[in-house]
Specification:
With about 375 residues, the chain is of the alpha/beta class. It is built from 11 helices and 17 strands. Helix 4 packs parallel to helix 5 and helix 5 packs antiparallel against helix 11. The longest helix is centred in the last third of the chain and has 20 residues. The structure holds alpha-L-sorbopyranose.
């Protein structure tokens, strides 16, 4: 196999171009084609992002023999079918979260990927902030002690106004859960990854603050709504949650609580967690990703700054620049894709720790348990 992989990207909204850029920055891949449901858009975007081939039908991209890895960056309801078709076409797959709209579909994808022996990954990129990996290592090495409690939130304000609109508000396209499936899933993945503990049961409280929203008469890309004028809207009833708080019980008895809110003024995209252990505590916030707070009872607290010379070997693997040269959101995808591509290029299976379809299935299962708890108003076991 050659030293660089040939990549095809399906979907050109907010996250598709982020995949294209990050893929190129791995120096391990060439983005050779893209697809969008609208051929004219595909042509424009291919031109804008200097991608040599474009398709108006993703199935044509899957027929493209040059393509070895497919990135699926479309609205949620398409993830299952596209992942399935890509695997059946013999391509390695990197899919956006959520992997599927329900557990059954996600299970089928895990099985199919396994049967085909193809590399499969879900874009849980937040794991790839270097200090998140450092937090994982600190827990693993016992520096935090026994994990007692985990708390945090994922807050955004891009859906703050009733005039903020996006396909994610429509359950047919996005799924029955919104805030939990969209951003809560990142936090849950992160916390299980960092603590190396599984959530055993959940108790959820949901709220929809905007019961109706004003839908613009033309489609709007994620985050692009802010530049639209509040005119020419249509009233749409909203059934998915703007907000959720979830109590968590972990398998070994640790306790946790998560709040997600997509209507939190001033919080642009803030994912944070704090882990209280029997030896120390750690706190991390995605809006200040190059700082890790370490809390102590008997001596001064510490603030660890991202610097390859100050972190563990494992965290160093996903740092590209020296201390003081901040790495951020686009770098997380780059580091994730680098590990995925290395896994493909080196023909290794199982030696890498990136989030796979099994992790994608895990988030779908957690999300379903949380939805059920919100509906039934009681603790639900995750199994
Ligand atoms: C939209 O809420 C969104 O783009 C998520 O889908 C992403 O996963 C997260 O990175 C930021 O917000």
């Amino acid at each position: 196999m050659s030293n660089t992989l040939k990549v095809g990207v399906i979907g050109t909204g907010f996250i598709g171009p982020a995949h294209i850029e990050a893929s190129r920055r791995t120096f391990l891949a060439e983005v050779v084609s893209l697809a969008d449901i609208n051929e004219e858009v595909a042509r424009e975007k291919a031109n804008q992002y200097a991608v040599k081939k474009y398709y108006g039908d993703y199935r044509d991209l899957l027929q493209d023999e040059e393509v070895e890895v497919v990135h699926i960056c479309t609205p949620n309801y398409l993830h299952y079918q596209m992942s399935k078709d890509a695997l059946l076409a013999g391509k390695h797959v990197v899919c956006e979260k959520p992997l599927a709209m329900n557990r059954q579909e996600a299970e089928e994808l895990v099985e199919l990927a396994d049967k085909k022996g193809l590399v499969n990954a879900v874009h849980f990129n937040i794991r790839y902030y270097p200090l998140v990996r450092e937090a994982h290592e600190m827990v693993k090495e016992g520096e935090v002690g026994k994990v007692l409690a985990i708390h945090g939130s994922y807050l955004q304000d891009w859906l703050f106004y009733e005039t903020d609109y996006n396909w994610r508000l429509e359950p047919e396209l996005s799924g029955e859960s919104r805030a939990i499936a969209d951003v809560g899933s990142h936090w849950l993945d992160l916390v299980e990854y960092v603590t190396q503990k599984k959530i055993a049961e959940v108790f959820a409280d949901f709220a929809t603050f905007h019961k109706t929203r004003k839908k613009p008469l033309k489609p709007v890309e994620t985050y692009a709504g802010k530049i639209l004028q509040p005119e020419d809207y249509q009233d749409i009833p909203i059934s998915t949650e703007d907000y959720a708080s979830v109590l968590l019980h972990f398998e070994d008895g640790a306790h946790g609580v998560l709040t997600v809110n997509q209507v939190a003024a001033g919080r642009k995209n803030r994912c944070s967690f704090e882990i209280d252990g029997s030896r120390s505590a750690i706190f991390w916030d995605s809006e200040r990703p190059n700082e890790l707070w370490i809390g102590r009872r008997d001596r001064a607290n510490e603030l660890l700054l991202k610097d390859p010379s100050l972190v563990s070997e494992e965290a160093r693997k996903i740092i590209s620049f020296p201390g003081g040269h901040n790495e951020g959101f686009p770098d997380t995808s780059k580091q994730l894709f680098r590990e995925i591509y290395q896994c493909i290029l080196e023909g290794k299976r199982g030696d890498f720790s990136f989030p796979t379809f099994t992790d994608g299935l895990r988030e779908v299962v957690l999300c379903e348990a949380i939805l059920r708890s919100a509906k039934e108003g009681k603790w639900i076991r995750v199994n």
